[in-house]
Amino acid sequence: MGIPPFILASASPARRRLLQTVGIEPIVRPSDFDESQIQVNEPAQLVTTLAQCKAETVAPQFESALIMGCDSVLSLNGEIHGKPANASEAIARWQVMQGSFGDLYTGHALIDLSQNRTIVKSQVTRVYFGQMSDRTIAAYVATGEPLKCAGAFALEGFGSLFVEKIAGCHSNVIGLSLPLLRYMLEELGYDVTDFWG
């Protein structure tokens, strides 16, 4: 079995960097899928549905490829949060998050066109946030970083200053669980090292 090209159906630079860190050079094809079409109130089901929709939207562009779709949300006190709409929403979210914790869910969908198989899984990581003053929250939101991320923080950026600890997969919080990806590839009959070089 030849090794198909690895397609990332996401515009996320963080996901691309995660893959590059472990030797996978993806072809990036953002899906531009309209997420508002999906109305699901359970976080794991929401992220897996969105991840699969994103991968399926990109799939017709290729004949033989592995297509990875991902989606992340933060569940906070039973409420699901994606990217904040604006700075005031990000500030309000951080006023609730600081000194508390949330569960970050990432859905992963992997479509193998050559085998006509799709694997969909989700991963959850608990994130504990530090105490922050209103001034610090305002300054962090002013960097613009929280507006680009589900949960209004980037673990790989300034946001790392305000995350006290995490329980679970570290890369999942950045947008793609690398251990889970390895298991999914193995389930399809690949070894992750096949994609190196």
Instruction: Give the termini distance in whole angstroms.
Output: 17 Å
* H-E string: EHEHEEHEEHEHH
Q: Which class best fits the helix and strand makeup?
A: alpha/beta
Largest sheet: 7 strands, mixed
Name the overall outline. elongated
**Helix share bin:** 25-40%
Strand content: 15-25%
Calculate the mean pLDDT score and round it.
96
Total strand segments: 7
Low-confidence stretches: none
Radius of gyration from CA coordinates: 17 Å
Counting DSSP H or I runs of 4 or more residues, the number of helices is 6
What do these coordinates show?
Helix content is 30%, strand content 25%. The protein is an alpha/beta fold. Strands 1, 2, 3, 4, 5, 6 and 7 form a seven-stranded mixed β-sheet that branches. α3 (87-97) crosses α4. The two termini are 17 Å apart.
Write the layout of secondary structure elements.
Layout: E1 6-8, H1 13-21, E2 27-28, H2 43-58, E3 66-76, E4 79-81, H3 87-97, E5 101-112, E6 117-129, H4 134-142, E7 163-167, H5 170-174, H6 178-187
Parallel strand pairs: 1-2, 1-3
Antiparallel strand pairs: 3-4, 3-5, 5-6, 6-7
Helix pairs in contact: 3-4
